Every structure is written in C-alpha cells, then in structure tokens.
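Quarterly update from the structural biology core.
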Amino acid sequence: TTGKKVEYRTYVEKQGWKKYSADGEQSGTIGQARAVQGLAVRVNDTQYSGNIVYDTYMQSYGWMGEKANNTAAGILNGGKRMEAIKLHLTGELAEKYDIYYRVHTQTFGWLDWAKNGDIAGTTDGAKRMEAIQIVLVTKGGSAPGATTQAYVQPLTQYNTHVQTYGWKGNVYGGGYG
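Predicted structure, tokenized:
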C-alpha cells in the first residue's frame, strides 16, 4: 500500500489540537513546557482489518480506559497532563504489523521506543508528556531505535529494617527489599 499508515494528533495545553502527524513524525511540542492533554490515533491501512487501540495515563486519574480508531483520549482542556500511553493493534493489523511509539517527557526528554501495548512515559513521576512519535513496522521487523527505556518510574525510594537481618538495601517503586 502507499500513503501514510498511521496518523495521530495531540491536544496540547493552551494550544488545542495540533495537525495530524504520520509515520514517526513528532506530534506535540518540545521546549515549551506544555503538556499533552489528549491524543487521537488512526490507521490508514485499509488492506487489513483490525483496530488501533490506545489508553492514556492522566495526572490525578491514572489509566483512562481504552479508546480506538481516532477517538479522542485524555482530558481535553481540563488542566491535567498526560503522563504515559499504551497502544496496540487488533485483528489482521496485529498479525501484519508491530506498533512502536515513544514519548518526550518533562525532565527525561525522548524516551526509548515501546511496542505493542507496553507503557511509554511515566506513571509515578508527575512528569508531563510533551510529544509523541508512532510508527508501524512489518511484524518482526527491526525497532526504529533503542527499546531499553521506554518507561521511567522515578518514584518512591525506601528501605526496611528486618529483625535478625538489619537494614536492607534501597528499593524503588514497589519492589521487594
């Protein structure tokens, strides 16, 4: 097929909806300290059946529930920042493609690429998502870049004192000491 395979646009704080970006182009802003507050994504590959499904993690609300096929996700103009996202494909689209996506976040900049339903962004760091890139890759094909750190969880650090053992090492984000 020819043309754009995946198109997406972001709703940016104090700017509203941006124009559609496609196939790995950036949507959102960098260097303006503006949060993405909404997202809509669509697949233009009509050769295969199936949907694109996405869920957004919003400040104060957590995961908002899955949306599909260009339905607006997030809290538009509600003063809440998007912090993380998960996307996956269904049907024949999922059999033919892997979906990769990465986000630009406050403090951390561009994170690595997430794939097929993995989390991209942060869910505990109170860091705004500022931009996103999305691309479809032929199933089993190479990732568009590094994939080791698509999700950052800078959150809580703690340690415990255990009888007989004493102080255990620091643990981060719900791990076991």
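The two ends are 52 Å apart (CA to CA).
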